[in-house]
Amino acid sequence: MSSQFISFEGIDGSGKSTQMQLFAENLKKSGDEPILSREPGGSTGAEEIRKLLVEGDPDRWSAYTEILLFTAARRDHLERTILPNLDAGKIVITDRFADSTRVYQGVARNDLAQMVNALHDLMIAHDPNLTFIIDIDPKIALDRGLARQSGEDRFEDFGLEFQKSLRLGFIELSQKYSERCVLINGDGTTDQVAKRVWQAYEAHHL
Fold first, then answer.
1. What is the span of the domain harbouring residue 157?
2. Cα separation of 56 and 157, whole Å?
3. CB of 40 closer than 8 Å to CB of 49
4. What is the pLDDT of residues 1-57, one digit of tens each?
5. Which of 23, 25, 41, 142 would disulfide-bridge 50, Cβ 3.0–4.6 Å?
6. How many domains does the chain divide into?
7. Can you spell out the DSSP letters for 83-119?
8. For the segment 188-197, what is each residue's pLDDT rounded down to a tens digit?
9. Is the dihedral of CA 40, 123, 66, 145 positive or negative?
10. What are phi and psi of 37, to 5 degrees?
């Protein structure tokens, strides 16, 4: 199979990380050995920047500074993890990529979409072949996210209205990039959602 670049997106607590793991397990059953990664992070330098972004006070950074930090982390992730594995013919699956910045900083925090897209075109210039967006009630997702007590809850601390705006942003994004984005109903059991993801993957014919 040729290389594939796949991302999982959604609001905090949507279950996307769990669904990514289950999707990878299904790929392994089919004989593939996917590379799993995440953002912010996925490489040594990017993981260091991650701590700056997901920990601390919600007002620690402005939306402008966040965009620059996320772009710096993403560039390192792209150079050191994503492109080398794609060049080697691997399937690379990441928990978040540029779509998160498009929604979190470009739409939900400030209307900075033009800046986000300009930086993406200049410094990243890559998007996944396929993106699964796990869609779920923001109240349920926020309760899940805060219950984890991971210490990485800076964005959850912005509150429910912020999560609602994120959800709308992801829905709009799925419509704008409909050729590669699939909106997955996140209601139901973990296995039910995983089945929807796998069916969407098979229907996409990568």
1. 4-204
2. 10
3. yes
4. 589 999 999 998 899 999 999 999 999 998 999 999 999 999 999 999 999 988 888
5. 41
6. 1
7. HHHHHTT-EEEEE--HHHHHHIIIIIISS-HHHHHHH
8. 999 999 999 9
9. negative
10. -145, -175
